[in-house]
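Now for a sample.
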Amino acid sequence: MADVNTLDRLLEIEAKARAIVNSAQEEADRRIRENEDNNRAAFNDYCKTAMENYRTELDKAKEELKLNYKNSLDKYRGEISEIKADTNKFNSLLEKYLFEKG
């Protein structure tokens, strides 16, 4: 009878141990899920902030390039408008190269 009581006692202890292990596993799974959710949310926030910063920098760079382009174009147009056409010289060059021999 002592062997049966001992065996019953061991089975009770094994059942309690199994319950403790299952409870610990459930708690570990819950913590892992919670940690993954927190990490995913933090990563998404980081990506969103980084994208907003990059977009702002890109817009700023675009505006700077547009301004540089406009200034360069205005400068070029100004230089071109300052050049005076010397039609007499041009006509004499044409005559020289097209109609003179030698």
Summary: DSSP finds two helices and no strands in the chain.
